[in-house]
């Protein structure tokens, strides 16, 4: 048995500066065997930087890394790996068309006679590994045929197969459904029992209290404090994170809806949607709930003309729209904040200001000639309004934190002056502070008379923000609920239980 | 501007200056005005052709048909000039038109048929070449009217006409990329084609325009070349393809798209031209010249990366 009283890992006084920012300022973090240490903080607080230093991807300016009580003189990715540190990032590193076993042993394939792949042994070991985590997945399946949650399990299995003792999970639940999260937690509990130490980064406070043993809060590159989870509560953690109290997580006050802005009838696409009908009025926030894969995102994409529809009508402000593609949608005043911000939202290597004006080039510069002053002015306006930080218009967007990238995408759409907003998972992977800001902003947009369709996998967000709620299940709308419906009813409907109205 | 940001911004220019200084020390003739003008004149067609490639690279694509388009446009110009009684300006218009057409086809193949750009333009490479051969047959065209040859040999205000054309093209492309919405859209498509589509940009059209521009500029390069040589044969264009890829990349244009510009391409081309010129001045055997070019291309990019890393 490992010495429970000696930390597996200590990071002492870690500092790191980037040009213009002190990303970390003398941060301490320790981790004991069999412990889940939750790391929270707003976007840009320094969590990722700290973890990248731990992984050896960044060099630290000051401070020391101590493993099993020994100060490490040298530190790099290979050493981190050799000491059993493994990272599971939000973005998976799996090879989609290779099978589970091949992925787990990628680059460390088991061989016979040093050359021929020993598939039998690889599958056996992979299988028992998955079994030990409590997720028996067929190791012969290509990874691309697995769900997101299963892929994550494979990612974790891969880390474990490398004898990981210190596992860093970065936002592991951001793409998972309720049931999958439960499964992940079960796996985490098994790992704890084996003495693995887990650093768990999350934006979801409720998870902290379910799975965490201790929590460390970072803010602006500093460690604000570390608490035993049993001895703290959500209010305290939020206060530590934002340095101010957030009274109102969901600011929505119901207001009077106006004319119909968007009416969808009998919408079908060839593979996913079946007879989707709903409407959104001006001044209204309509929530679209449902499990992952129920067709919510596909609905948004079909309305915006990103995917072709095979049947059904779309009416925008009372007018039927025969053919719709994204340029037409933008012209008609529809803005789509996409679910996958990195893929469909931002231009990572372009400067902030260019990102902001990219959807409204035609409106801003109808003659095709760019006016840099006007570009800066427009971008600056929204950057200020949304409090994008840092407000450096020339900075490439890839260097902003997730929450600020999301604000940039919001700014891009505001710039087009739309009347109808589709927000697909507007606050996924975003910290509490930025979340509250985006919620307040959505509320303001609706109060100003805009129509908002909000897709979300977070039930509290759906319940807290929506004036009306539609629930989708397997490609169809299966229920419509007024504000104030309780959570249980919506979950039941989303899971496909009959008779919801 | 601090020294650091200056270095970052002009690291490639520094490589060119460094190279020139070394050559000047070895052979003072290098710095003679006439020699310098000669270098720029020699580089001009390549710069114009590379400018088109730069734009394609910015979208994340590549145009392998460039060499063939140069050939095709040159041969069409030669055909009109020697085999018909049409005015020489018709030769220019039809040559440019053939470039635009090739670009249009490549662009449609990339944007609408969704072929990888390397495949689409590789097909165009052979089609353009085959077409050029079919038009010309076995006998080169030569002996063009003086008015046409002025494009390649003329001198205006003491500066050769090709340089004037090159400067005009560089300026237009610079302004186009920096100050037009289409130019910005080209960067956006290269930076993230999915986000470009989801932002309501007409990605198809943007790509088609891009390849048409590339074809147009290749044709223009071909016209200058034809006018200068006063003859055109089947091999006139092919040698321009690889330098057209190398010079933008040496100049900092990313092959994955979204990053770069015309300034770097000019410097990249000049580095190679200066090198060849220097080796001729220094009487280095042409056997070793290619070896040296390879070395310098790699060194120039390495120096740039090294400076970036040191100053970052």
How is this structure best described in words?
The complex is a heterodimer of chains A (501) and B (312). In chain A, α14 (372-385) crosses α15. Chain A contains 18 helices and 22 strands. In chain A, a hairpin with a 2-residue loop joins β1 (9-18) and β2 (21-31). Chain A has a 6-stranded mixed sheet with strand order 6-9-10-3-11-12, sandwiched between helices. Chain A starts with 8 loop residues before the first strand and ends in a 7-residue tail after the last helix. Chain A has 501 residues and is an alpha/beta fold. A two-stranded antiparallel ribbon of chain B has the order 1-4. Chain B has a two-stranded antiparallel ribbon with strand order 2-3. In chain B, β2 (155-156) and β3 (159-160) form a beta hairpin. The model of chain B has no long low-confidence stretch (mean pLDDT 89). Classes of the chains: A alpha/beta (501), B mainly alpha (312). Chain A binds chain B through residues 304, 306, 326-327, 329-331, 336, 338, 343-350, 354, 357-359, 361-362, 365, 368-370, 372, 412, 416, and chain B through 178-185, 187-188, 191-192, 194-202, 258-259.
What brief labels describe this structure?
heterodimer; A: 501 residues; alpha/beta; Rossmann fold; 2 domains; six-stranded mixed β-sheet; 18 helices; 22 strands; 33% helix; B: 312 residues; mainly alpha; ABC transporter involved in vitamin B12 uptake, BtuC; two-stranded antiparallel sheet; two-stranded antiparallel ribbon; 4 strands; 3% strand; globular
């Amino acid at each position: 048995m490992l010495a429970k009283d000696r930390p597996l890992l200590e990071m002492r006084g870690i500092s790191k500066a980037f040009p213009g920012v002190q990303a970390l300022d003398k941060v301490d973090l320790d981790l004991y065997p069999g412990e889940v240490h939750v790391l929270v903080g707003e976007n840009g607080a320094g969590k990722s930087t700290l973890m990248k230093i731990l992984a050896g991807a960044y060099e630290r300016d000051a401070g020391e890394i101590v493993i099993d009580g020994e100060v490490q003189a040298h530190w790099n990715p290979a050493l981190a790996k050799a000491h059993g540190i493994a990272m599971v990032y939000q973005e998976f590193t799996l090879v989609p068309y290779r099978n589970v076993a091949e992925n787990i042993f990628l680059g460390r394939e088991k061989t016979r006679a040093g050359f021929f792949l020993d598939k039998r042994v690889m599958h056996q070991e992979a299988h028992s590994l998955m079994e030990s985590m409590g997720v028996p997945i067929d190791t012969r399946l290509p990874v691309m045929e697995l769900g997101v949650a299963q892929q994550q399990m494979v990612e974790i299995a891969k880390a474990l197969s490398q004898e990981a003792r210190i596992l860093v999970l970065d936002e592991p639940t951001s793409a998972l459904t309720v049931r999958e999260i439960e499964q992940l937690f079960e796996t985490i509990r098994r790992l704890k029992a084996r003495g693995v130490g887990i650093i768990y980064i999350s934006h979801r406070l409720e998870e902290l209290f379910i799975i965490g043993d201790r929590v460390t809060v970072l803010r602006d590159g500093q460690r604000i404090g570390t608490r035993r989870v049993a001895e703290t509560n959500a209010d305290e953690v939020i206060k530590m994170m934002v340095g101010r109290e957030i009274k109102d997580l969901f600011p929505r006050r119901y207001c009077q809806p106006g004319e119909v802005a968007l009416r969808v009838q009998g919408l079908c696409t060839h593979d996913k949607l079946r007879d989707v009908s709903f409407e959104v009025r001006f001044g209204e926030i309509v929530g679209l709930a449902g499990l992952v894969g129920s067709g919510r995102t596909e609905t948004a994409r079909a309305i915006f003309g990103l995917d072709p529809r095979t049947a059904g009508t779309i009416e925008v402000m009372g007018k039927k729209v025969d053919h719709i593609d994204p340029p037409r949608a933008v012209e008609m005043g529809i803005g789509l904040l996409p679910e996958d911000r990195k893929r469909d939202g931002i231009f990572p290597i372009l400067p902030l200001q260019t990102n902001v004006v990219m959807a409204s080039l035609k409106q801003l510069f109808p003659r095709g000639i760019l006016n840099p002053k006007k570009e800066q002015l427009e971008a600056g306006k929204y950057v200020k309004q949304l409090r994008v930080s840092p407000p450096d218009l020339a900075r490439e967007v890839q260097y902003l934190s997730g929450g600020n990238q999301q604000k940039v995408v919001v700014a891009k759409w505001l710039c087009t002056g739309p009347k109808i907003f589709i927000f697909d998972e507007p606050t996924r992977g975003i910290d509490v502070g930025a979340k509250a800001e985006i919620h307040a902003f959505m509320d303001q947009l609706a109060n100003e008379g805009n129509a908002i369709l909000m897709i979300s996998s977070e039930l509290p967000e759906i319940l807290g923000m929506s004036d009306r709620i539609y629930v989708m299940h397997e490609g169809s709308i299966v229920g419509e609920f007024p504000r104030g419906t309780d959570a249980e009813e919506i979950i039941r409907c989303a899971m496909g239980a009959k008779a919801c109205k | 501007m601090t020294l650091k940001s200056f270095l970052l911004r002009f690291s490639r220019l520094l490589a060119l200056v460094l190279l020139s200084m070394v050559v000047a020390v070895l052979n003072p003739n290098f710095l003679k005005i006439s020699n310098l003008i000669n270098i720029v004149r020699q580089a001009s067609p390549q710069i114009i052709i590379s400018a088109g490639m730069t734009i394609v690279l910015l979208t994340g694509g590549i145009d392998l048909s460039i060499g063939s388009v140069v050939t095709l446009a040159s041969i069409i110009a030669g055909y009109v000039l020697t085999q018909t009684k049409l005015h020489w300006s018709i030769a220019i218009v039809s040559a440019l038109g053939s470039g635009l057409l090739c670009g249009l086809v490549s662009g449609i193949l990339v944007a609408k048929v969704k072929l990888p750009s390397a495949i689409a333009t590789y097909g165009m490479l052979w089609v353009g070449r085959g077409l050029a051969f079919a038009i010309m047959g076995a006998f080169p065209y030569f002996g063009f009217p003086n008015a046409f040859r002025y494009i390649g040999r003329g001198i205006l205000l003491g500066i050769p006409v090709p340089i004037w054309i090159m400067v005009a093209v560089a300026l237009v492309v610079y302004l186009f990329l920096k100050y037009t919405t289409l130019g910005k859209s080209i960067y956006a498509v290269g930076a993230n084609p999915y986000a470009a589509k989801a932002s309501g940009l007409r990605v198809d059209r943007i790509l088609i325009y891009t390849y048409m521009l590339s074809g147009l500029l290749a044709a223009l390069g071909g016209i200058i070349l034809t006018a200068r040589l006063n003859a055109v044969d089947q091999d006139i264009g092919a040698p321009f393809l690889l330098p057209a890829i190398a010079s933008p990349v040496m100049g900092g244009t990313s092959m994955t798209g979204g990053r770069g510009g015309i300034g770097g391409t000019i410097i990249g081309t000049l580095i190679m031209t200066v090198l060849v010129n220097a080796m001729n001045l220094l009487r280095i055997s042409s056997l070793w010249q290619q070896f040296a070019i390879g070395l310098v291309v790699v060194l120039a990019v390495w120096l740039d990366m090294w400076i970036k890393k040191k100053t970052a």
